[in-house]
Amino acid sequence: MIFFANCSLNQADLVAKEAEEAGASEIRQTKAGVEFVGTLEAGYRFCMYSRISTRLLEAIYLDDDVADTDELYESTLNIPWEEYITPQTTIKVTKTAQDCPYITNSHFAALRVKDGIIDRIKSKFDDERPNVDTENPDVTIHIHLHQNRAIWYLDFSGEGMQQRGYRVDQTDAVLKEHLAAALLYRSEWKKSITEETSGVLLDPFAGSGTILIEAALIASDTAPGLVRKSPFAFTKLPSYNEELWQSIVKEAEEKREKAIDERDIYIYGSDVSPKAIRICEENAKAAGVREFIDLQVKDFNDYSEEDKPKCEMGYIVTDPPYGVRMKEKDIENLYYDIGEKLSNVFKGWKATIMAADSELLSNIALKPERVNSLYNGSLFCQAAHYSIFTDEEKEEMKRKSLEKKKERLNTPLSAGAEMAYNRLVKNIKELKGEMEKEGVTCYRIYDADMPEYSAAIDIYENKWINLSEYEAPSSINPEDAERRLNELIYATERATGIDIENIYVKQRSRMKGKSQYNRLASSSRFNIVHENGLNILVNFQDYLDTGIFLDHRLIRKYIQENSENKRFLNLFCYTGTATLNAIKGGAVSTVSVDASSTYLDWAMENLRVNGYPTVIDNYFYKSDVMDYLFGTYDKFDLIFCDPPTFSNSKMRATFDVQRDHKKLIRACMMHLDPGGLLIFSNNFRRFKLSEEILDEFVVKDITEETIGEDFRDKKIHHTYLIRNKVKVNLKRKRI
């Protein structure tokens, strides 16, 4: 017999393991599930014990050459359906279709299959036909179409294997049973179960208890088939063997009894909601596992050393609230508090935490060892797995880190690294005094000075290094490129004295548009740097750029010095650093525009850390810049416009700064007060300002004045001051 077990995305490996344990062979994983070969007994065992699969189908016929719905009907008609159903059998047809050229309406395909089945039965039973029952059929037939292949299946398990049937009630947001089981399988807790004991498990956000109940079922060796309330679909198939099935039921019951007798089970749950705990108790009773779960009403923030279960190592597996249940700011604070509580109270434990948004997980100030992607229905979720170190483990890690650093610093540099080191030392010596004199704490110490080491190296607050390696040409051997990068990293550590762990390395490709803004990671680790008397949030891990363009340092200073009593507009505002300087300089109001909500949030947070309001006089708009400029009528005294070189966003038409700068500048000038100033800047190295713009407006190229001494590349940006021409009215005089 050939079976196909459906499952959610990214869970096929778990289902394949279940099929193997059921006695299957020739197991093949696909995106939608697992195909395997097995006996009737293997099919029964799989239905009894699978915790992850959602449906088991038995393949009965295959046709590799179906060209249209008529041929689909003919192929269906030729299958001996009388072996599976009679006129008294109620039926239902379900379908899936992938890349099938002749299917424009999958419902019509299912109708043709149904017609073929009914016509076959009518031809064999004197024109008698089976009835269709979409709610509770005796037999469900599933047709799967892929290109010209058609496979006919009998539903062996019945739909919804994951629905154990123990839900008496539920909270607002419900975790699916099979997903809870998958979460437990992915966690370290599952590995802790022995014949004598289960590891200590705690779910401090119990909700309706799905994780706790599934854990209790696993720990007590209670097969899901024993809990299931409705019979499996195979009991209505002609192949049903009552004696064989009952032997498997008996075997499962004996395994459960043995585990309960011999295994100590430690499962704890809590929730801040008394209603949730009540629901959890009722569901656990319905599942037959209430005796294995210790429940209490408790806020996770109230946990202390005395409150947590007593053990050297425990396991937290939980699905905390997310956007469905809480306001955005509250939820971010919750996940931050989770990280703090884990670090301070649950030292030595392991934790698996699931969220529907990886951004929420980034608020937990711990680094996950691994991350799994899961689906709760159609909702994409991520499960992060953490080890929470004890104080002793942290000290040991620190000791080993210091030993590695000592060994690293005592190892002689290669000739190439020595050359890079000497250049860095020379650059720092030339720049450091002047930067300190100007109060600059973030600047470039290396600007691709040597062709062999093509990178930009920026130092921040003498604490962190951002090293952006330019992508090596394809002609360079990858091993040589990697060796040179490592040499540059070691040279940087020695020249600056900044530990290698605080040197953040990224590869900067020759890219177009805002691809430099694409997210690289999800740490959400922000540090504060200082510039022009301001606090600025930077992130070294998540993006190619850190949140502040150091080459614009002098432009920002110019904005601060020329903003007093001005209405300021910041277009393509990024993280709002120009806006900060305008406010610091005395602007009476600011408007910041960007198409990215991520960067607008970052910009508003920059204002907050400086004590500036994000409402009343300081406004933020999530909008395409062109849409904003042509959709509003506000006037400004000072405008800063720093567009990308190229942009190809779903939100708007393609933007090319060389091609489109005339339209952009003219739109900006429409919003400029007659005596106002536009600062126009961009980073396109070959940029050439249009002659038409030079004729229409008063333009001054101040590029050289806006590039600091720390930038060896004097073409890193172009900057212009643009004003409207003064109109002179000449009155005629009578001679």
Query: Cα distance, first to last residue?
Result: 112 Å
Structural class: alpha/beta
- Roughly how many Å is the radius of gyration? 33 Å
Q: Helix share of residues?
A: 25-40%
Number of helices: 20
The low-confidence parts are: 510-520
Describe the 3D structure.
The chain has 735 residues and is α/β, with parallel strands linked by helices. The chain contains 20 helices and 29 strands. Strand 2 (25-29) and strand 3 (33-37) form a beta hairpin.
Describe the structure concisely.
The protein has 735 residues and is an alpha/beta fold.
Topology at a glance:
Blueprint: E1 2-6, H1 12-21, E2 25-29, E3 33-37, H2 40-49, E4 55-63, H3 69-77, E5 91-98, H4 106-124, E6 139-146, E7 149-155, H5 177-186, E8 200-203, H6 210-219, H7 224-227, H8 242-262, E9 267-271, H9 274-287, E10 293-297, E11 314-318, H10 328-345, E12 350-355, H11 358-361, E13 370-376, E14 379-387, H12 391-410, H13 415-438, E15 442-447, E16 455-460, E17 464-470, H14 478-496, E18 503-508, E19 527-531, E20 534-538, H15 553-561, E21 567-571, H16 577-584, E22 589-594, H17 597-609, E23 618-622, H18 625-631, E24 636-641, E25 646-647, E26 655-656, H19 657-670, E27 672-682, H20 691-696, E28 697-701, E29 718-724
Parallel strand pairs: 5-6, 8-9, 8-11, 9-10, 11-12, 17-18, 21-22, 21-24, 22-23, 24-27
Antiparallel strand pairs: 1-3, 1-4, 2-3, 4-7, 6-7, 12-14, 13-14, 15-16, 16-17, 19-20, 25-26, 27-29, 28-29
Helix pairs in contact: 2-8, 3-4, 5-6, 6-9, 13-14, 15-16
